[in-house]
Amino acid sequence: MTSWAIAAHGLRKSYGEHTVLDGIDLAVEEGTVFALLGPNGAGKTTAVRILSTLAAPDPDSGRVLVGGHDVAADPQAVRAAIGVTGQFSAVDGLITGEENMLLMADLHHLPKREGRRTAAELLERFDLTEAAAKPASTYSGGMKRRLDLAMTLVGAPRIIFLDEPTTGLDPRSRRTMWQIVRELVTDGATVLLTTQYLEEADELADRIAVLHDGRIAAEGTAEELKRLVPGGHVRLRFTDPDAYRSAAAALPDAARDDEALSLRIPGDAGQRELRAVLDRLDAAGVEAEQLTVHTPDLDDVFFALTGGADVPTQPKENVR
Ligand code: ADP
Asked: Residue 210: which of 86, 293, 313, 316 has the closest Cα?
């Protein structure tokens, strides 16, 4: 039997005329990491705000259950089961890390002694013991995120929402955060995170949903999503605009990037395909400055699903 930490059906949210979430379904199994992946403005934060009872879904929205509780009918029970850290952090910069933690312990009505113990343990766990007596405003970005998460964990939530947990962090702090997320799940928590980074979803998530235009454009494991785009693509770069235009005319299947003067030919990037591309370039009398062959990764999936008008939403036939 599968236990769902989060189950949303036909989730809708509009602001005035603007439909942000156009009936999305989400199912997150307990004890797993689920990534909601999408570009800026895709509606990720809106989804997290609704799932965490900070915003109401539209009246005609379907049912949304978090921790088995209906967000509309029983928001208190949902709040007791969850923790949220977001782009608008709860950290108060004027007081110390430790004081922030103790404030959280008070909010959760922990007895004084237990509050101190929990605060000390979490500060230690997130490598903040040394900084605990300093004002949080002096912390680095990574330290603030860790403190924010530590504060969230004071209430021992079973379901944790992380809204863009590593946006703006340096690579090292990002890796630390990834490790923390893995440990949370090892300890039995369920994590729903939003991210703009494919690499992050690939690293952490058991399942990934790609949010685009208010809908889930694709959902599955990283491997399943990669299979949506068979074989990657060939990319050709040019420095001469005339050569670029001739090549684009010779390769009508290619997606164009007119600014970068580059062409991207979807397909399996195999030997036959490569030869076909080169033959066409030869026939057109143009030479590419650079030719690279890409095997598929999540970037390809993302590009294919959310790309602009020149990009096919369905994998193209191999070029002949
Ligand atoms: P993401 O987190 O993926 O960047 P958001 O959920 O923040 O996306 O925003 C999705 C869209 O909803 C954006 O176009 C944003 O302008 C709009 N939006 C979000 N919150 C509000 C609000 N309170 N009022 C009006 N529009 C909003």
From this structure: 313
- Which DSSP state fits 138? G
CATH class of 4-91+139-226: alpha beta
What does the pLDDT look like over 114-160, one tens digit per residue? 999 999 999 999 999 999 999 999 999 889 999 999 999 999 999 99
The answer to whether the CB of 41 is under 6 A from ligand 1 is yes
Looking at the whole model, is its pTM more than 0.85? no
Residue range 233-295 forms a domain whose CATH class is: alpha beta
DSSP 211: E
What residues does each domain of the chain span? 4-91+139-226, 233-295
d(CA 107, CA 230): 51
Strand partners, 294: 233
DSSP state of 206: S
55 CA closest ligand 1 atom index: 23
| Ligand 1 binding pocket includes 49 (Cβ within 6 Å) | no
